[in-house]
Design a protein that fits this description.
2 copies of one chain form a homodimer. Chain A is α/β, with parallel strands linked by helices and 205 residues long. The first copy, chain A, has one domain (8-76, 90-203): Dihydrofolate Reductase, subunit A (3-Layer(aba) Sandwich), CATH 3.40.430. In chain A, 16% of the residues lie in helices and 30% in strands. Chain A contains 4 helices and 12 strands, in the order ββαβαβββαβαβββββ. Chain A has helices at residues 54-60, 70-73, 124-135, 146-154, and strands at residues 8-15, 19-21, 65-69, 97-101, 109-110, 116-120, 140-144, 160-166, 168-169, 174-175, 183-192, 197-203. A 9-stranded mixed beta sheet of chain A has the order 5-6-4-3-7-1-8-12-11. The first copy, chain A, has a two-stranded antiparallel sheet with strand order 2-10. The longest helix of chain A is centred in the middle third of the chain and has 12 residues, at 124-135. Chains A and B meet through β9, β11 and β12 of A and β9, β11 and β12 of B.
Amino acid sequence: MTTRMGRVTCDLSISVDGYSAGLNQSEQRPFGDDGGDGWGDKLHAWMTDTEENRAELERMTAATAFIMGRNMFGPVRGEWDRQWNGWWGDNPPYHAPVFVLTHHPRDPQPMDGGTTFHFVTDGIESALKSAREAAGDGAVSVQGGATTVNQYLAAGLIDELRLHIVPITLGAGTRLFDGVPSLNLEQAESRAASSVTHLTYRVLS
Amino acid sequence: MTTRMGRVTCDLSISVDGYSAGLNQSEQRPFGDDGGDGWGDKLHAWMTDTEENRAELERMTAATAFIMGRNMFGPVRGEWDRQWNGWWGDNPPYHAPVFVLTHHPRDPQPMDGGTTFHFVTDGIESALKSAREAAGDGAVSVQGGATTVNQYLAAGLIDELRLHIVPITLGAGTRLFDGVPSLNLEQAESRAASSVTHLTYRVLS
């Protein structure tokens, strides 16, 4: 019997040319120029079809600890000189500890519904160690953005990569796999929904 | 009733990170460092499973005229100072006119089984015009490599893009969409086989 303890997963919505965000990301347009009008219109529109994509959406939030880069957490740069508790309101969808990678220390930020944002200043391996401890028998999910995912992939720390490929190309922006050496993958699952294809890969090496 | 006359399709096998060939392409290894031992081992291994992938394979060769870049046609560079009639033996799988983009003139090269290689020296639009004329009511297929496909995509000349996504990343090489501006696509079809996912997109703009 294999244990799933400490398994590290990653979900990322990307364009067909591999971008998780376009150029010119801002507070008003967190995913930048993605051809939509705002909050991830194009790259994340599939998430609003909760019926058709139920299995994938449930799997995305099934982890018991989460990791994200600071740019995914919010638009504040440098010191935490402005109150910012993420994009997700008072009750974020994580309901578990979320470890935010940053160079600037900040006290943990508890939210409603069981989410607490922890701010990690000593690197991706330290964040993963804390997340594994917090996750217990559950999985750790690396949430993104692509820059953070690329660091974990390059370090060989992702076990399962779930890509949600959206029918658009962006031509520029933040690209998944940028700077990541060759990986040997196993196609574990693949399913086409009406406006997105869900691909799950195990990372073998 | 819409006519399909002159429809331009493109089939390309790519890694999950979008490469159609690795670095260090050579006569011995036409697809370069792709993690395999030779002739496109990894990127094209799915083609040997003709039962599971029958529909996609039949669709790939259903066009009635083909276009390819010179690097896909063969390893000869510069003047045609060496006899080279493609990688496919005396009876290539095209059975139709194939227009090869090159800067160096050469007489048409008829092969067995109905394939004739025509060498086009005045650019991609001229090659497409000739291919459309040769295709009659049928489709024109842009065969690759990615450099050629990117030129046609950037010029807005591809109607249907069929990607065969292989579970490997290469990290470097010739990348589909490199330098191609943002495209609006429609996911027309998507099917997972055991070791490849077939994605078909219509190019809307």
